[in-house]
Amino acid sequence: MAGRGRARGLSILSAFALITVLVVILAATGGSRAESGAVSLTPEERAWLNAHPVIKLAPDPDFKPIEYFDENGVYRGAAADHIHTLEKKLGIRITIVHLQNWDEVMDAFKRHEVDLLGAVEATEDRERYMLFTDPLVVVPGGIFSAREFGKPLAIKDLQGLKVAVVSNYMAHDYLRNAYPQISLDVVPDVSTGLAKASLGMVDVYVENMANATFYLQEAGITNLRLVGKTDFMYRWGIGVRKDWPMMRQILNKGLAALSEEEKAALIGHWIHVKAPPWRPSWAFVAGVLASVAGVLLVAAVLINLTLKSKVSARTAELQRELAERQRLEQELTRLNEQLEERVRERTAELERQVTDRRRAEEALQQLTAGLEQRVRSRTAELEASNRELESFTFAVSHDLRAPVRHISGYAEILTEELEAREYHYAGGYLARIMVSCRRMQEMIDSLLALSQISRKELQCKQVDLSAIARQIMAEMREAEPHRRVDAATGDPALLRSVIENLLHNAWKYTGRKEVAHIEFGVDTSGGEPVYYVRDDGAGFDAAYAGKLFTPFQRLHTDAEFAGTGVGLATVQRIIHRHGGRVWAFSEPGRGACFFFTLNTESA
């Protein structure tokens, strides 16, 4: 009877929780009315959109019913409908980027590879690198379990329990920061969390009511129930890059223009809450129980009078049985003590065997992991060498032909004129031959320097990158003292040749500016140091950024800016040899920024 009573209590809690979901959703979708037509943007807002024609949004790929990709790869859900509606009202186009999971989405957002997140909850951690629009949906959080706890749970009651949360979701960030003593089992998605709770692999699963109820119905899980509510609400808004406050202003203007009917339609299409069935009130149940108790009390008195006469006779018999039972219990206790002693001895022996086996397995795993890492590193080096060899072969067979043809052609013309004793243009031809020879010599020297990078053994030690940057900038200022350039340095790290190539590029491509700005620094906001060299020079079209690090592939002609096209290939090879990454971002006429990371442990 107690178990069934607890089950009824939890069912009533579930019903009240569902009603709360409906109330909160209706409250979130209320507010001031606005016309459903297009939103009027200010000239400043329209100018900002024109300057940012490509806006990328990466949704959570499996966050039903808020946002997800269906079997055809189409972006769907309550957040998706909001995004499509905002596109129409604001007259903008948002590009949807399909990534594998939420962790990949967050990593890409932090690197500014995407600009918006479809539905995200504001947390203390995320506010360091993200802006948030007004909420799209507001939903309470729930605590789900297959167990019975006898009372509704709160967050503070989860200490001592194994609690499942989805990686980087609101519940994960909140519990990790506010309740570090709670044991968290971090899972990749909602389906995994519900499955673990259903199978008893965790005690409870914490999730918002909308996602949890949707996935429970979709998966047909029937043994999970709502056993409590969180002390926080889920308020999902659109996540915006920290450096795009104007984008948030524009999106909030679009959200404010949604009418109450439009908001209700956008939410109600995906989140459905049914009114719970009738349940008897506690007062009703108490009255019924009191009546039944009275009847049982009268029956107990009558039965007691009937049995009283039999108690005395039965008591004597029970005393004899009790004496015999005590004797048997004493004998059983002696045998149990002997058995427990044997079990302890055997357990100690098994523990020693298990410990020895575990140590051997750990040693084997460490050896295997080290070998696999060495194989992966060697494979990556071989693949990089093959790609470099292909580029080198192409350069030798293609790019070196041009100066050779020039030399051969002008030498032939010069020979003919010398034979005809016509010397009018001989000097010019000889000058062009010398220019081509110098050009070919520069290209050969660059190729030799590039090839030596792979053969040279790395001598990794601490290097002050800031000091190297200042030294290189001083050398370039001494060579061209009339140039005005502001240089800013950041935190220290590594490698003169990388800084030298990047700073020389920045110096070269800002040469046509009266006052140029070149900045070298490091960004540690993402946890991993990311070094950069930024300038406000000629820039380039980002659509062709993939050609930057291929030898002899240049985005500017020699007439515009001189060069061999090998410098950035040298940078990439050095960075790869140090286990790092290198990439660039630019817009024509607005400068360029080159980023790189270093991983000396893998190197």
TrEMBL record:
SMART domains: HATPase_c, HisKA, PBPb
EC number: 2.7.13.3
Pfam families reported in the protein's UniProt record: HATPase_c (PF02518), HisKA (PF00512), SBP_bac_3 (PF00497)
Gene3D superfamilies per the UniProt record, alphabetical: 1.10.287.130, Histidine kinase-like ATPase, C-terminal domain (3.30.565.10), Periplasmic binding protein-like II (3.40.190.10)
InterPro entries: BphY/WalK/GraS-like, HATPase_C_sf, HATPase_dom, His_kinase_dom, HisK_dim/P_dom, HisK_dim/P_sf, Sig_transdc_His_kin-like_C, Solute-binding_3/MltF_N
Catalytic reaction list: ATP + protein L-histidine = ADP + protein N-phospho-L-histidine
GO molecular function list: phosphorelay response regulator activity; phosphorelay sensor kinase activity; protein kinase activator activity
Domain Histidine kinase span(s) in chain numbering: 395-602
BP GO terms, sorted: osmosensory signaling via phosphorelay pathway
Coiled coil feature spans: 311-356
Transmembrane segments annotated in the record for this chain: 282-305
Keywords: Coiled coil, Kinase, Membrane, Phosphoprotein, Transferase, Transmembrane, Transmembrane helix
Protein name (Swiss-Prot/TrEMBL): histidine kinase
Native source species: Geobacter soli
Lineage, highest ranks first: Bacteria, Pseudomonadati, Thermodesulfobacteriota, Desulfuromonadia, Geobacterales
